[in-house]
């Protein structure tokens, strides 16, 4: 008898994922929410900077929280629809990171045809584990320079103060 493939469900842990980014690894209750290590760090830093009265850092960590939650939303909707387009996006993301090129452009309809929804869902889940790590690594800098913060970097601020006309 042929061995049956392990159902994609087995990739899902019985414990709830991270409340913000939906990471399915280890979570710990932090300020009343189940958070992964990366999101937990954001939450802790936010509280610490609040106590210190560092309003800029608080804004940065708030922005990081928004980004982590948005990532979770994207993940949730991609895993839910699990179409060829969503799998193409995940593959493209990993491909760009590894070889700085998207080797999967325009493959959505093939991915739709060659894999069934459960297979695509399992692949998206696995790929997102890598994407999540790489995205969370660059989040601090991205948040600090986010247009939502309306913040000018100190170097540029000094330059503008020295020479008010150049921007
Ligand atoms: Zn998380």
Q: What does this protein structure show overall?
A:
61% of the residues lie in helices and 4% in strands. α3 packs across α4. It has a two-stranded antiparallel sheet with strand order 1-2. It is mainly alpha-helical. It starts with 27 loop residues before the first strand and ends in a 5-residue tail after the last helix. The chain folds into two domains: 67 residues; 58 residues, no CATH class. Zinc ion (ZN) binds next to α1.
In summary, what is this structure?
The chain has 167 residues and is mainly alpha-helical. The protein is built from seven helices and two strands, in the order E-E-H-H-H-H-H-H-H. The chain binds zinc ion.
Which descriptors apply to this entry?
single chain; mainly alpha; 2 domains; 2 strands; 61% helix; flat; binds zinc ion
Distance between the termini: 72 Å
Largest sheet strand order: 1-2
DSSP strand content: under 5%
Rg on CA atoms, Å: 20 Å
How many beta-strand segments?
A: 2
Biggest sheet layout: 2 strands, antiparallel
Bound molecules: zinc ion
Question: Outline, from the CA principal axes?
Answer: flat
What's the rounded overall pLDDT mean? 89
The topology string of helices and strands comes to EEHHHHHHH
Report the structural category. Answer: mainly alpha
Number of helices: 7
Overall tally of structural domains: 2
Catalogue the unreliable spans: none
| Portion of residues within helices | 55-70%
């Amino acid at each position: 008898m042929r061995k049956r493939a392990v159902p994609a469900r087995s990739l899902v842990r019985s414990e709830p994922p991270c409340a913000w980014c939906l990471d399915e690894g280890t979570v710990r209750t932090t300020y009343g929410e189940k958070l992964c290590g990366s999101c937990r760090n954001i939450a802790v830093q936010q509280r610490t900077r609040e106590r210190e009265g560092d309003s800029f850092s608080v804004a940065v960590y708030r922005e990081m929280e928004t980004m982590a939650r948005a990532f979770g939303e994207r993940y949730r909707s991609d895993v839910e629809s699990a179409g060829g387009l969503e799998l193409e996006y995940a593959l493209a993301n990993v491909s760009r990171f590894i070889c700085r090129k998207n080797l999967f452009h325009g493959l959505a309809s093939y991915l739709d045809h060659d894999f069934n929804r459960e297979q695509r869902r399992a692949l998206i889940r696995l790929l997102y584990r890598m994407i999540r790590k790489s995205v969370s690594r660059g989040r601090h800098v991205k948040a600090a320079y986010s247009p939502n913060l309306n913040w000018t970097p100190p170097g540029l601020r000094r330059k503008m103060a020295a020479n008010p006309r150049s921007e």
